[in-house]
Amino acid sequence: MFYRPADGHGLPHNPFNAIVAPRPIGWISSRSADDHDNIAPYSFFNAVAYEPPQVMFASTSAKPDQDGTKDTMANIRDTGVFCVNIVEYAMREAMNATAAAWPADVDEFTAAGLEATPCETIPCLRVAKAPAALECKLTQIVELPGNTNLVAFGEVTGVHLRDDCMTDDYFDARAFKPLARMGYLDYAVVEDTFPMPRPPAPQR
């Protein structure tokens, strides 16, 4: 089939999220200007640069108690910092619990039964037992077409790696089984990997 998004897809559910999949999940923790801690998952997330290390995530909807966005983006806009917690399969239920539209003054760490610990380089909490966490300083927020589409970019200022996720000095995804977002209500888990060396440069 072919469809133009502006004309609608004619299907019971939008297939777009299922096409661009699997997507890594950024479990973004933040703190409001009045010291309310927050954590929520975002699957429009990725790393975007090595030097300096930088990440991005997009927020694409809004809550009635925020100004045209969600708690996470509002907090980052006010404080300039956030932390990306990497989601393992074992934490899937807690991650899903934090996806609910909690009121802005609710601490999702407590609501989801998550152990939190302070970050080292920014005034924010992180998931204590996450396989990895990236402490970030906001570099810019970009407004995309649409009513509530915002993208936050951040420079990584601190990196936490859980010791049991290190194998022979490599951060080993197989040790914790990363969770990924598919389309609709579906998720995927990474349980195996394989190497594929890059080919040499073509000779002219």
From TrEMBL:
This is Flavin reductase like domain protein. InterPro entries: Flavin_Rdtase-like_dom, Split_barrel_FMN-bd. Pfam families: Flavin_Reduct. Residues 18-177 form the Flavin reductase like domain. GO terms for molecular function: FMN binding; oxidoreductase activity, acting on the CH-NH group of donors, NAD or NADP as acceptor. It comes from Tritonibacter multivorans.
